[in-house]
Amino acid sequence: MKKLSILVAAAFAALPFAGCVNDVGVVNPYNTTAQWNSIGFLTTKYPGKTIDEVFQATIRGLDQLYGGTSRVGEHRPKPKEPYYEVYARVVGDIKITVKIATARDAKTKEQWTEVTVSYGAWGNLQESQKIVAAISRNL
């Protein structure tokens, strides 16, 4: 009985992380909708833009929104790592992570650059949308 109650408790604890995904609007002329999941990540895509173009636009956008001193780090890929990450901290020591990666549809072979924004520990949709708008403005 004790094992069953532990199993049930673990299942209920995992429910918030089950990955409920909703479509939301974003200011992105290349794709006007993005996916917001229950973990607090906002994901959008930029078809026709290279990973380097989006990376530079992300840096400029974060600097414009929060000032140049907010950016605290970047992860640039090694040859076998096709993604970038940009890290920032804002007032209240809130961590922002922007992951930029190349994605491809398996069926159509269409390729795009995908951006995933995480604002704070549990996410903030409005701030994440502002970051996507800043990135789009700089492309």
The biggest sheet amounts to: 7 strands, antiparallel
The general outline is globular
The name of the CATH architecture is: 2-Layer Sandwich
Radius of gyration: 17 Å
- Which secondary-structure class do the elements indicate? alpha+beta
Average of per-residue pLDDT values:
84
CATH class: Alpha Beta
Question: What is the percentage of strand-forming residues?
Answer: 35-45%
Summarize the structure in words:
The chain is an alpha+beta fold. It has one domain: TATA-Binding Protein (2-Layer Sandwich). Helix content is 30%, strand content 36%. It contains three helices and seven strands. A seven-stranded antiparallel sheet has the order 1-2-3-7-6-5-4. β5 and β6 form a beta hairpin. It is globular. About 10% of the residues have low confidence.
Can you give keywords for this protein?
139 residues; alpha+beta; TATA-Binding Protein; 7-stranded antiparallel sheet; 3 helices; 7 strands
Concise structural overview:
By secondary structure, this protein is an alpha+beta fold.
Task: Summarize the SSE layout with pairings.
Layout: H1 2-14, E1 21-25, E2 33-37, E3 41-47, H2 51-66, E4 71-75, E5 83-90, E6 94-104, E7 111-119, H3 125-137
Helix pairs in contact: 2-3
